[in-house]
Amino acid sequence: MSARSKWLDVVRSPLGATALGLVILVALAAVFAPLIWGPQAEQVDPTAITQGPSAAHLLGTDSLGRDVLARVMVATQLSIILAVLAVIIGVVAGTLLGTAPSVLPRWAGRFIAGVVNIAVAFPGLLLALFFAVIFGVGTTGAVLAIGFAMAPGFARLTQTLSAGIAGRDFIAAARVAGVSRIRILIRHILPNIGEPLVVNATVGAGSALLAFAGLSFLGLGVQVPAYDWGRLLGEGLNRIYLNPAAAIGPAVAVVVAGLAFNMLGETAASVIGGRSARRRGRLPLTALSSAPVHAQAAGDEVVLLVDDLRVSFPGPDGWITPVRGVSFTISRGEAIGVVGESGSGKSLTALAVAQLIERPGRISAGQLEFCGTPLQEASERSVRHLLGTSMAMVFQDPMTSFNPTRRIGSQLAEAASEHQGITRRAAMDRAIDRLQAVRVPAAERRAKQYPHEFSGGMRQRAMIAMGLMNHPRLIIADEPTTALDVTVQRQVLQLLAGVRRDTDAAILLISHDIAVIAQTCDRVLVMYAGRIVEDLPAAHLHSHARHPYTRALLDVVPELDTDRSTPLKMIPGRPPAPGAFPVGCAFAARCPLATELCRERDPELVDDASGHRVACWHPVDGDQPAADAAIPAVTSALPIAQHEGATR
């Protein structure tokens, strides 16, 4: 259903029809009332002072004999204009305050967030009175007072919405591409939070109208000779026992206009909410030497060097370290696969390498070098440029990998224009060329389409094309085939292999599918509980895997000739939570070979001098077939579906 059809359906509903009718009524009164009733509202009649309702004056007259009804109608224009101006000020100021922590230094962002949190705790009308004292009595002071009183609420809303968008994959992709914070804010975050801000601004207009009426009633708002509904209400209340209609008229006007704004906001929310719900041949194997990890791949160009990498986050009882002591290297043209269950630290390791761990998370390492540059010591600007030009990331969810409000071509072109200094036209031409390189049909037409117009496989191809906009030396593919059917999975994996072959780029492939890793990579890193427990050539995975956990992962993969009458084999128990790693080997509680030594001491990752590293006190015989050494099936264990649904 199109947005136009959705609007028509909502307008036909009782709520939508009432909201539309009230909005039209208020708009017509604001535009035409001064033209129709303007002279009558200003006509002074000494013979008709403070009269009650009559055929000539339906709401009576004021102290100068002016018609109250005419003045109520004429006051519509000024009342609506002032409320809209206050809302605009509140939205603009609130958006600036809400997005400031995203672009300012951390200390300044935390200070602004603290001020906003304090301001939100006070009632809006109390803040309006406070600002009215600061800005002074009068129309201008009242507009500024109400606008700034509304700003904290919009700032809090903007912070919340921005935090939800900032965690999306397309924001991470923009950071990897080296896009500046301000540009990410303007091009990616604000367009995605605009709709709820508009809805809340519409609802907020009703509150602003009421606040304005309150200030004018107290004598702090509109001053004579101008008048709005609040001023008329104050004048009517002074004579409420003589002529109640003089007070009821402006009060009804405030209520009707407030309902119009609030119901319009509810109508827009139902339309936008419905629309949002809908959007919703390989290179030779590279053998490792027996040297320490930082000296591995000698003689080859080391693209990525990771030594003793740790990622920590604050917890209620201290720091939690879900990635603890990961070490490996990747050479030019090499493909390394990372496998493991949910929570093993695979994706956190990749995000740490790409410098995408947000504060308060911490990254520490003995060495963390990319293309010879120490990432922990280099300046933020140089790291951003290096990662933007030499590293590409392909995320696991193709739907969230792109900004839904921008065309595919412009998102690809942004990566090139940001770092290569080329014109917009040249960047778009390169985007079309890269789409053609990843075999997207009708690339020129497709570049003008939005992400929702692409299928899942095409979005993943476009994501790979984005990584190729510059000249990447490392491609990090974080479960790139998740949620894709097997045919598209094969196409995406073949495409990555082709890119690797054509560009000599290294690939770090993260997957929960150990069979895919074995078929597409040169080396396999098996992770468990934040550590690498085995590192071996992919060609030796089925025949020489020595860690019981690796053997268990191999054994739970069903084969075509598996006996259907027997239950599927499973790994008993659950992986330990990141904040509750046990003493000793983390796999000991699930391992049938575990001894007291395993429960007391954590084994080191030891190289057997043949390029095979394993962290186990009782490694399995490397020549024993996997099926013979795997963990036996247990009916109370986790199902294989839960094992293969690994997250990060």
TrEMBL record:
Q: One GO term of the cellular component aspect?
A: plasma membrane
Q: Which stretch is the leader sequence?
A: none
Where in this chain does the record put each ABC transporter domain?
304-554
KW Cytoplasm (keyword) present? no
Q: Does the keyword Nuclease apply?
A: no
Q: Which InterPro entries match?
A: AAA+_ATPase, ABC_Ni/Peptide_Import, ABC_transporter-like_ATP-bd, ABC_transporter-like_CS, MetI-like, MetI-like_sf, Oligopep_ABC_C, P-loop_NTPase
Q: Where are the transmembrane segments?
A: 15-37, 78-99, 111-135, 141-158, 197-220, 240-261
**Compartments (UniProt record):** Cell membrane; Membrane
Family of this protein = Belongs to the ABC transporter superfamily.
- Which PANTHER family does the protein's record reference? DIPEPTIDE TRANSPORT ATP-BINDING PROTEIN DPPD (PTHR43297:SF2), OLIGOPEPTIDE TRANSPORT ATP-BINDING PROTEIN APPD (PTHR43297)
Recorded protein name is: Dipeptide/oligopeptide/nickel ABC transporter permease/ATP-binding protein
Species source reads Microbacterium sp. A8/3-1
